[in-house]
Specification:
The structure holds two protein chains of two kinds. By secondary structure, chain A is an alpha+beta fold. In chain A, 68% of the residues lie in helices and 10% in strands. By secondary structure, chain B is an alpha/beta fold. Chain B has a six-stranded mixed beta sheet, sandwiched between helices. In chain B, helix 4 packs across helix 5 and helix 5 packs parallel to helix 6. Chain B is globular and about 50 Å long. Classes of the chains: A alpha+beta, B alpha/beta. The interface between A and B is medium-sized, with 28 and 39 residues.
């Protein structure tokens, strides 16, 4: 029998062990291939070429994906190797040299890898169309699907996975080289010796873990200042460290306290949940921390991307309150209105006047903003409302300030705040009664807009006229009655020649939709990969544990415990194993989103909840798979 | 002995393995009875059906034919769920390789069988203390199986078998993995428990020394009862000699006895 025969035979015999690793391999190939073919797809390239941000986003996502696939495969491979320790030991026992055993394992690995590559690319070819369709839909393009058989994507995938196969083969070689026969036969015996935790030390570190997380959470709500970047790093470090301590010490300490208080009367379900958890604490702490942090990252990423996408329409509208605006070019606006009439598009057009001056706030509003010599644009409440934008002003002597993109920095400033208009000239003091979100002109420069009552508007204007030359802007705001005609009207609008600045809602909306659509696609794709990787890792780990504990289940069944009773304990354990990382990851991401909520002008609770629910649902599938595997194992135990 | 009730009664039990065409009959119509408070040893060469008999009587496996009554309850017609319940309430088990849960301490292991019952914690604690004292493992309560010797593990296993105050304890080669000193000490304790607590014990063993601790030894050969020996008033040494004689006649097992 040649070595190759032996390999084929052992593979056929061991299908049960292989399918785990094989599945992981195929999955990685499929996801990577789909991504690669999208990257090389002509219609996607067309989109990404126009935007540097998108192109670099795609590239960064590709690298990240590569990284995840690599880590995932190496991890799956290490679990796989552990499970086969006995077999490897046996080969050595009957006299095969380490080199031969390595050669055998590597041959197997290459066979598996080639198979997975072929199958993965095959499946990838089938499903990449679906993903492309989804992407096109998300970025609002209904084009003909052009996805062609991409040789470049296949080559790229093959290249990447051959490299990964070499890496995993090296991992195998190192594992065999380092192993001793004695160890190899012991791998199935479970875990570490349980040491009684030093109560004082664990109590301190356990509390420290919770404190660190709490501190990180607290700081994340107080970091909007010039040290933002530094604070972000502090938050990240303290939360990650806290999470590690939580898994490594706090939870072990808490479980140990419960266990001690039971004084031996542990009960079946605790015996099957708390005891094994303590037993494998050290081994599990690392992976649980990584999984928690990854989950938190993924959740934050997906929720943020989805929120951006979800609110893109609303936010475009906030920044572009009117469908069309033509600034200081009456002939152009006339031309446009005539064109609209001709095309039989009904509209509402209205003039808005404003004038620009400088202003000083009485105090610093936010350390990141200038508060003196600020560009201010004054506009009257009645004109805005005539044009279709209602901004309510209560006090005739005060105004409402709209700061556009910098609104998030002013949200929490207490009102009223005094604003001195044109200091040195006009010296008019206006109280700001509130900061409103959005914009009153379609224009977005860094000027803030103050909306005031008509009388105050006139007063400022006349006073202003006396003090110097007036910088007045006259604009025409146009709103369509039927928003379905926006596309048609925008084409007309773009066809007009005008020297003035002009801004329209529809173009802005399309741009936002496209970039946020791309963002959510990339985030969703990566999120899916993260989720599947972390879920699979938990699943694989639990599978291994189930195998290791098989003997215990046999004993328990012989002692007369029913499958249901044993399952209750197992499920309790899974609640810990799956629930804890999920719960803590959720908490982390909620705080991360809260501290990052300044990015969004609108409330993102709804999209966040939706994104998180989807994540939880997929995550739970892995938990159910795991419980199912345990049930099978326990049923077969007697 | 005459007032004692029958604890276990098996009538013409048969057990076959394999599927059509390749059926192998392991138990061939066995009649067997254990009285309350008896310490019965089952001996016989490999393949005689010792372990199969034990598994069948202990409700871990089912018979192909025949009926088994334990403490007046017919177990041959019970479903799996009821059988589990029955094992937990009425039976105790001691295995050759201890089968302790590595993740639990000695005390937790011992208390496991009564963890899902209506035994009050105070009662459970009392039982634990008394059994641990009898078996000499009180000091080990908070140790893990990985930290104690084989003999101590088997004592733990025995304590676990006794904690639910079973009608009958089944022991499968309990000394098989022990050195002779630990084995003797464990068997002495089992005999003492049998004597003092009136616990019925049925033990499968290869070892004539081990079976010399019993009140009665049943020899199996090829799935049927070959012979039976009562200890009566003999000393353990005399009983041991008798067992050896029967084993000699049985033949083939001398290789086995090594």
């Amino acid at each position: 029998m040649t070595l190759f025969d032996l390999v084929v035979r052992s593979m056929r015999k061991n299908l049960k062990h292989y399918y785990l690793y094989f599945f992981a391999l195929i999955l990685s190939v499929v996801l990577y291939f789909v991504f690669a073919s999208l990257q090389h797809d002509a219609s996607v390239l067309e989109q990404t070429d126009t935007s540097f941000k998108m192109a670099s986003g795609f590239k960064a996502a590709g690298i990240l994906l590569l990284f995840i696939s690599g880590v995932f495969l190496l991890y799956a491979n290490s679990i796989f190797l552990k499970r086969r320790g006995r077999e490897v030991g046996l080969y050595q026992l009957i006299g095969l040299s380490k080199f031969t055993v390595t050669r055998m394992l590597v041959t197997e690995n290459l066979l598996l890898g080639t198979g997975a590559l072929a199958i993965g690319i095959g499946i990838g070819l089938l499903v990449s169309r679906v993903f492309l369709l989804l992407l096109m839909k998300l970025i609002g393009i209904d084009g003909v699907l052009t996805l062609s058989f991409s040789g470049a994507a296949i080559l790229q995938t093959i290249f990447v996975f051959v490299a990964l196969l070499v890496l995993t083969s090296l991992q195998m070689a190192v594992a065999v080289k380092r192993s001793t026969l004695l160890e190899l036969f012991k791998v199935d015996q479970s875990g570490e010796r349980v040491k009684k935790p030093k109560t004082a030390v664990s109590a301190i570190f356990g509390t420290l873990g919770v404190l660190l997380i709490g501190f990180g959470y607290w700081l994340s709500g107080h970091m909007l200042n010039s040290l933002l970047f530094f604070y972000m790093i502090v938050v990240l470090v303290s939360v990650i460290l806290g999470t590690y301590l939580l898994f490594r010490v706090t939870i072990g300490w808490a479980i140990f306290q419960i266990r001690t208080s039971k004084n031996g009367h542990l009960g079946l379900s605790n015996s099957l949940s708390l005891a094994p958890l303590i037993h494998r604490l050290k081994a599990n702490a690392n992976s649980l921390t990584i999984i928690t942090v990854l989950s938190a990252m993924t959740l934050t990423m997906i929720a943020a991307a989805y929120s951006t996408y979800y609110s893109s329409g609303k936010e475009s509208r906030l920044m572009e309150p009117f469908d069309y605006m033509i600034v200081g070019d009456p002939s152009a606006s006339d031309q446009f209105l005539k064109l609209l009439d001709k095309a039989d598009i009904s509209y509402h057009a209205s003039d808005i006047e404003g004038f620009e001056l400088k202003g000083d706030y009485e105090k610093e509003l936010n350390p990141m903003l200038y508060y003196q010599d600020v560009q201010i644009r004054v506009v009257s409440e009645s004109q805005l409302s005539k044009a279709g934008l209602t901004i309510e002003v209560n006090d005739p002597q005060s105004g409402v300030l709209m700061a556009g993109y910098t609104h998030w920095m002013l949200k929490s400033v207490e009102t009223p705040v005094n604003l001195i208009l044109e200091p040195g000239g006009l010296n008019k003091n206006v109280a700001i009664e509130r900061f409103a979100e959005g914009n009153a002109f379609n224009d977005y420069d860094f000027a803030s807009i103050i909306v005031v009552k008509d009388e105050l508007f006139q007063t400022i204007r006349s006073g202003y006229k006396e003090s110097g030359e007036i910088a007045q802007i006259n604009t025409v705001a146009i709103n369509l009655q039927n928003k379905d005609q926006l596309k048609e009207a925008t084409e007309l609008y773009n066809g007009i020649e005008s020297s003035g600045k002009r801004f329209d809602y529809y173009t802005q909306y399309q741009n936002t939709l496209q970039s946020s659509g791309m963002l959510i696609f990339i985030a969703g794709f990566l999120g899916l990969v993260f989720l599947i990787s972390t879920g699979s890792i938990l699943y694989f780990k639990q599978m291994t544990e189930a195998e290791q504990e098989k003997a215990s289940y046999t004993t328990l069944r012989q002692l007369g415990f029913s499958v249901q009773e044993i399952m209750r304990g197992v499920i309790k354990k899974q609640v810990f194993v799956f629930g804890l990382p999920l719960l803590i990851g959720l908490l982390h991401s909620i705080f991360a989103l809260k501290s990052a909520s300044f990015i969004f002008m609108s409330d993102v609770t709804v999209p966040t909840v939706i994104a998180m629910s989807v994540y939880i649902a997929i995550y739970l599938v892995f938990a159910f798979l795991t419980v199912g595997y345990y049930r099978k194992t326990i049923k077969a135990a007697l | 002995m005459s007032q004692k009730t029958t604890m276990l009664e098996a009538a013409s039990i048969r057990k076959s393995f394999g599927t059509r065409g390749q059926v192998q009959q392991v138990l061939k119509g066995l009649d067997f009875r254990v009285m309350e408070g008896e310490f019965v040893g089952i001996m016989g060469p490999s393949g005689a059906g010792k372990t199969t008999l034990l598994n069948v009587l202990a409700t871990i496996d089912r018979t192909t034919e025949g009926s088994i009554k334990i403490n007046g309850t017919d177990i041959s017609s019970m479903n799996d769920r009821k059988l589990s319940q029955f094992r937990r309430d009425q039976l105790g088990f001691i295995f050759q390789d201890y089968n302790l849960l590595d993740t639990l301490t000695v005390k937790e292991n011992i208390l496991l069988p009564i963890s899902v019952g209506n035994v009050k914690r105070v009662v459970a604690e009392d039982r634990f203390k008394s059994i641990a004292r009898t078996l000499g493992i009180t000091e080990l309560a908070n140790k893990y199986p990985g930290e104690i010797s084989g003999g101590q593990k088997q004592r733990t296993s025995a304590a676990r078998a006794l904690i639910n105050e079973p009608s009958i304890v089944f022991a499968d080669e309990p000394t098989g993995a022990l050195d002779s000193k630990s084995a003797a000490s464990l068997l002495g304790t089992l005999a003492q428990v049998n004597d003092e607590r009136d616990v019925t014990i049925m033990m499968v063993t290869h070892d004539p020394v081990a079976s010399s601790y019993c009140n009665r030894v049943v020899f199996l050969k090829d799935g049927t009862i070959y012979s039976e020996l009562y200890r009566g008033e003999q000393t353990r040494q005399q009983f041991f000699q008798e067992i050896l004689k029967v084993q000699g006649i049985l033949g083939g097992d001398s290789v086995d006895a090594l």
